Amino acid sequence: MAGDRLAGKVAIVTGAGSGFGEGIAQRFAAEGARVVVNDLQAPAAERVADLIRQGGGEAVAVQADVSRGEDMHRLREAAMQAFGGVHVVVNNAGTSHRNQPLLGVTEEELDRVYAVNVKSLYWAAQAFVPAMRAAGGGAFVTIASTAGVRPRPGLAWYNGSKGAAIVISRTMAVELAPDRIRVNVVNPVAGDTPLLATFMGEDTPEMRAKFLSGIPLGRFSMPRDVANAALYLASDEADFITGACIEVDGGRCV
Questions:
Q1: pLDDT tier for residue 193 given thresholds of 50, 70 and 90
Q2: Coil, strand, or helix at residue 135?
């Protein structure tokens, strides 16, 4: 499936070395975007960028920790050097503590969850808003979670980080609208990605059945589901859409 819905655009996708981020990066490239594939793990980013190039797309891999300001500014500079600009930033990188009672999560785990899931949005704004203002506009897409809308027990601090990501993104949407910078949110339900076992606490048939029982359409989300929603929000088809949250959840939040 290929097209030109993002032709001429440069897109940065964080946490794109696996899972939802990989799906988004590949879908964006198939629609004509030049993609900066970011991941904390350099080999993972290189693997995805190589797959895109092998498929005829344009991509570069950049290792960066989204919780660090200097890394996010370096990510911007890499995009500018490789492709001459930045039109779309997908804040996808995320992490979680293991599903467990709220008192069991350590301070170190808490700090890492908020650094990756929340502080990264601060650094993304610092790094990319000035560039988008100078270019006359742009689009951010935050990959948050249904956890920030309909929280489950056992993930209290993760849920809170995703609630913060949603509110921050919607505030950015209002504040940056005069600059023609759109900010939207995708809220996936649990997906069959490397983080699934962390969300569930343990990956067993019984635990999978328990989680699936709360999803009316009866399956986990997949990278293509999230990628399709992110593609719409990043494209010019959504040029009057900002501050929106799309639940990609099989009906979980109804």
A1: confident
A2: helix
Contact criterion met (CB below 8 Å) for 20 and 188? yes
Q: Is residue 243 part of a domain?
A: yes
Whether pTM > 0.90 for this model: the answer is yes
Q: What is the predicted pLDDT for the residue at 2?
A: 74
Residue with tokens 């949603």: 166
DSSP-assigned letter for residue 239: T
Sheet containing strand 245-248, strands side by side: 58-63, 34-39, 10-13, 88-91, 138-143, 181-188, 245-248
Residue 252 domain flag: no
Q: Look up residue 132 and give its two tokens.
A: 């988008």
**With pLDDT > 90 as the criterion, what percentage of the chain qualifies?**
89
Spell out the SS3 assignment of 118-137: HHHHHHHHHHHHHHHHHHCC
Across the range 88-117, mean pLDDT stands at 97
CATH code of the domain covering residue 137: 3.40.50.720
Q: Would you say residue 253 lies in a domain?
A: no
CA dihedral in degrees (72, 166, 23, 203; nearest 10)? 110
Joined together, the tokens standing for residue 45 give: 């980013």
Per the structure, the complete domain to which residue 183 belongs is given by 10-247
Average pLDDT score over residue span 242-250: 98
Q: Which residues pair with 184 in a beta bridge?
A: 141
Which residues are known catalytic residues? 158
What pLDDT shows up at residue 1?
Answer: 56
Domains held by the chain: number: 1
